[in-house]
Design a protein that fits this description.
By secondary structure, the protein is α+β, with helices and mostly antiparallel strands. It has helices spanning about 10-25, 35-40, 70-80, 90-95, 145-155, 160-165, and strands spanning about 1-5, 50, 50-55, 60-70, 110-120, 120-130, 170-175, 185, 190-195, 205. The chain is built from six helices and ten strands, in the order βααβββααββααββββ. Mean pLDDT is about 80; it is low at about 30.
Length: about 210
């Protein structure tokens, strides 16, 4: 990914031009992007931008800016600098259920996070993805099982939801009408996402 701070000007210009093409709005190509450039420049030097999403279905067209290589405390400082309206100091506490002390070799429990950049700054909804390692996903005491136990203890999911996710990983052979030979289908949990928004309860999603 590109460095968020070092490549801020070029990234903001590129994002503006792509959005203009998607919206069929040639006038916005020449329009300034102070909010996006400010959001990029507020990132710490180590932050990288893996990709950007365009939220075209939202009432207020937003660009979803993804950042990686930030620890929870760095995310708190970044959100404060961008003027996020939520309680910045709660992220470290909120991320505890997803932090695996047994798998402490990972640099940060947060694989990547995102903010929605709107014309006036940063939107209220932010998300943080905690990557689930693929090894031992079916092991009764593997990383996924430990994560789901902590999520259940913190009332972030129900026991039934945790059990369903524990039983999802696996594989099988499948036959498709358009194929001449069997296919191997592999199932795993890719990541768990924590969504925070001021005035609303935390939302947790699992991506398969």
């Amino acid at each position: 990914g590109l460095r968020a701070r070092a490549d801020a000007r070029a990234l903001a210009r590129c994002i503006r031009e792509i959005r203009a093409l998607l919206l069929h709005d040639e006038e916005s190509i020449a329009a300034p992007e102070p909010a996006m450039q400010a959001a990029l420049q507020a990132a710490p030097p180590e932050a990288e931008v893996p990709y950007v999403g365009f939220m075209l279905a939202r009432q207020e067209t937003a660009c979803r800016l993804y950042l990686m290589h930030l620890r929870p405390d760095a995310w708190e400082e970044y959100l404060q600098l961008t003027g996020w309206p939520g309680p910045c100091g709660e992220l470290a506490e909120r991320s505890l259920p997803f932090t695996d002390p047994v798998d402490a070799r990972r640099g940060s429990p947060i694989g990547m996070g995102h903010v929605d950049v709107v014309p006036h700054g940063v939107g209220a909804r932010v998300g943080f993805e905690f990557t689930c390692v693929r090894r031992q996903q079916r092991h009764p005491d593997g990383p996924l099982a430990r994560l789901l136990r902590r999520a259940t203890e913190h009332a972030l999911c129900t026991p039934m939801q945790a059990q369903a996710l524990r039983e999802w990983p696996g594989g099988q052979r499948a036959q498709w009408p358009q194929h001449l030979w069997d296919s191997v289908v592999v199932r795993h949990v890719h990541c768990v996402k924590l969504v925070l928004e001021p005035g609303r309860l935390p939302e947790v999603k699992a991506y398969l």
